[in-house]
Amino acid sequence: MPEMRLHDPRGDRLYLNAEERGAFLAAARWQSARDRTLCETLHWTGCRPSELIEVTPARVDLSVATIAIRSLKKRKDGAGRQKIVFRTVPVPPEFIDTLNTAHGIREAQRSRKKAVAPIWNLSRVRVWQIVKGVMIEAGIPDAPHRSPKGLRHGFGVHATVQGVPLHMLQRWLGHAQLSTTAIYADAVGREEQDIAARMWK
Q1: Residue 29, in any domain of the structure
Q2: Angle, helix 148-161 to helix 124-137, in steps of 10 degrees
Q3: Which of 30, 128, 130, 154 is most exposed by smallest CB count within 10 Å?
Q4: What is the number of domains present in the chain?
């Protein structure tokens, strides 16, 4: 399995910084309800597109503002069988309200059939295209970080900058190993330098 990193071999970053994440959210608010909530879910949870398209109304907890996401990375239990792992990620209550309004989550949860139907009935490729289009509208430069993966890495860096403990971030991102999550701590120094550079101007 290739080692996860936050910079490519040329040193270009592979994550969205705070300004780019803000611009992405602002651009997403001008999209259709479907595309807006899709982009905001990726932004607020750090999930992968393949995980996003499995989210159903039943996995949204409106009362505590969380979304349960099935980790799609293959894991084995003690007997060597593949196990299913869910992680619960907290999101802002205002976003849960938006999600409920746009997709009728509360109403869908009352129906056994609708509760288990995907909120976004799209392919992973289509999700990638939507996100990329919104990033272009947001003015994010044509660089390696302009991708859903860049958004996921941006979530990790932002959480670390905000002081989220690594073990909690590990759970939110669905990493099997804490050493994988620890790469976000290395990016904080670069992010802090960007902030300091703006302060010195």
Answers
A1: yes
A2: 70
A3: 30
A4: 1
